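Sequence in, structure out. Go.
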Amino acid sequence: MPPTPLRGRLSARKQKLVVDFIEANIAEEISLARLAKLADLSRYHFARAFRQTFGVPPHRYHLARRMERATKLLTQSTLPVTQIALRVGFSETSSFTRAYRRYAGVTPSDCRRD
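Output:
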């Protein structure tokens, strides 16, 4: 008999579906409605279950994954910051720099230097 999911959380199968979708579309804007549809839940129930499962709302999780990918690119590649910003879904370097500073406490250039 398969283990029962903890009440109010996404099942392991739905977690994998959602996380895989976010990873595959890291640079895209992903709506709550799209994720909820993927998990076959209403937007309200999906948002609640996602937060209970991962500890953060879907948007914040997606942004954190984008910033983690950016950090990896900053530290392991020689791509210009502008290219990294585009690869993680930012159309302007300034908005990427602002978001990255909020996330990591340093600018992308400072991260690269360290």
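Check: The chain has two domains: 12-55, 62-113. The chain has seven helices and no strands.
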